[in-house]
Specification:
2 copies of one chain form a homodimer. With 191 residues, the first copy, chain A, is an all-alpha fold. Chain A is 77% helix and 0% strand. Chain A has 9 helices and no strands. At the A-B interface, helix 1, helix 6, helix 7, helix 8 and helix 9 of A face helix 1, helix 6, helix 7, helix 8 and helix 9 of B. Chain A binds a DNA duplex (30 and 30 nucleotides) through helix 1 and helix 3.
DNA sequence: TCGGTCACCTGTCGAGCGGTAGGTTTCGTT
DNA sequence: AACGAAACCTACCGCTCGACAGGTGACCGA
């Protein structure tokens, strides 16, 4: 069973890589990308820093893997983004602070010069805005009940999600992320 | 004129410190707080790193001074926050990317563990939300035209401002921050 | 003119960083 | 049983970081 065994071998390695990426997500959440040392990530999966570098040749390569994971994670909801699904997404995120914290920290860093995640986020926001506008158009047509066009509502929707995340991360007890987001959707959807 | 001379001396020193804080704002905008080295800040004002440490004994002390500057800068508009003034503020900020970038980078970092700016931002958002709610109440009463209470609208308002800043910093040509913000205010103020 | 404070310097330190080089163990395949 | 690649390690490197110690010159009030 040559294929099977080859698969097994490759799977072991990919499992290891997945472990490392998971650990990297945690460490980045705690210290940011610049503050995350390869040694700290390695220790979390029981490796030395050099052992980690066997799987990812540079720190930036590891970050790329982290961002790629996010990409395919986002792809799960698919192009079908309806308002109620967005609320569920926000509620779901509110129970997994780690992920939010990782990418909020990365987003903040990414606006600095020459940050390796900058292109990723720029590109990501472009597509997210476009997808969001398309979803709003599919649901409401050329004008939302509030009078906005989908293209003008989309950046606001994205901004609210991100902005609420920061407020919530800093002070979870004072900010009900999901409720606030529902408020905003009401604002968009009401006449 | 002992007082006068003493003042002069103190003023010289404070001017120097102000110069350093200004340089620190720039460097933090470019590299974040963790990425900003004292040497880089010092070089920008024509000092050695050790010369800078004469004015601010630690890196964190310098950050505190930077945050303090922000505090009194925000205090300028006073408690009188009206909707149209907010628009002017956003428009003004859109012409000074440096400031926005500095504090967007700091905000992103601040959600990480043990970050020295975390308490600052937590506290700041608490008061900004409260001030904003008070301003909305003064303008609209207990219910905004959209039906929201001031307390529920305030976090959304703050979130939109922050979120738009990130989108704008990453891709200024694709995001019209002021226009989007006006859209949101319309959303809030319309029935 | 003297004395002292202030501003700033050179020198140095220890720790941590990402990354390279090269060896050793483990393990599936033949 | 032998081989070869993959996984992982030890050792090391150059660099940068924030911070400490101690010295020097200028300025300023007495």
């Amino acid at each position: 069973m040559p294929y099977g065994d080859a698969m097994t071998t490759r799977t072991r390695s990919e499992e290891r890589r997945a472990e490392i990426v998971r650990a990297a997500l945690e460490v980045i959440a705690e210290r940011g990308y610049r503050g995350a040392s390869l040694a700290a990530v390695a220790e979390r999966v029981g490796l030395t820093q050099q052992g980690l570098l066997h799987h990812f040749p540079t720190k930036e390569a590891l970050l790329v893997a982290v961002l790629r994971e996010r990409d395919q994670w986002d792809a799960l909801p698919g192009t079908g983004w309806r308002a109620d699904l967005l609320v569920s997404l926000v509620e779901y995120n509110a129970m997994r602070p780690g992920i939010i914290q990782t990418f909020s920290a990365l987003l903040g860093e990414s606006v600095t010069e020459g940050h390796p995640a900058r292109a990723f986020f720029t590109r990501r926001y472009t597509t997210v805005r476009a997808d969001m506008a398309a979803a709003l158009r599919a649901e409401y047509g050329e004008r939302l009940p509030s009078g906005l066009t989908p293209e003008r509502a989309a950046p606001l929707l994205v901004a609210v999600m991100d902005g609420l995340q920061y407020q919530w991360l800093l002070d979870p007890e004072s900010v009900d992320m999901a409720a606030a987001f529902r408020d905003f959707l009401t604002l968009l959807g009401e006449d």
